[in-house]
Amino acid sequence: MDLDIDLSGLEATLLAAVRMTAFIVIAPPFSYRAFPGRVKAMLALGLALAVAPRVSPGYESLATGPFVVALVLEIVVGAVLGFLVYLVFSAVQSAGSLIDLFGGFTLAQAFDPQSMINGAQFTRLFQMTALALMFASGGYQLIIGGLTRSFDAVPLGLGIDLADPVGLMANGVTQMFLATLQIAGPLCVVLFLADVGLGLLSRVAPALNAYAMGFPLKILMTVMLAGGVFLALPSVVQNLSGDAADLLMGVR
To answer: Which of 28, 86, 106, 142 is 20 to 30 A (C-alpha) from 116?
Structure first.
């Protein structure tokens, strides 16, 4: 029995799997370490098989040397795309860091080996909430859709023009800081005004030792007002998912 193997299609699928794997290792929510590496590999292979009909037509088999170069290029492309998505969703983590800083929670800073985050309670809580909302709202589907459409903008084995990703990274950093201030800004302003009020109170009545009262008061205010921030997180995560998909499709 003769078995015909389409080597061109097999190479195209392999290159697509390499790009998918590099993307999944870096981009949230797939990069979360609670997902076993075997599951990530199966997901990357499944996505590569899904996009095989898109990338196989027109692809020609390469020699050994050019094929190795194409593999390296696909790793670079997948890593760049994953970093763009990571940069967008860093806004939620940065917002939690700001709340920890202004609320006095940074003394309880710890390292989370699952999400690879070094932060206090709200930093890790916001990160876990963003991951849960991405799966609950289907935001990960937008990211996967943007990744599959990236094969049209950046064909297999052709590499990537670094001018576009650098510009997108600069824009992503700007959007990250803007989203961070939009999420945590109101609560940080309230906590800053509380510090100002305690400072004025210590000047008026030094015997009250207002700064000793400030730590439990600010923690209480942070816990009470953080619920309002959580109400805004679903819409924020949805917008960030759309921004991440736009960045993936904007790479040339």
So the answer is: 142
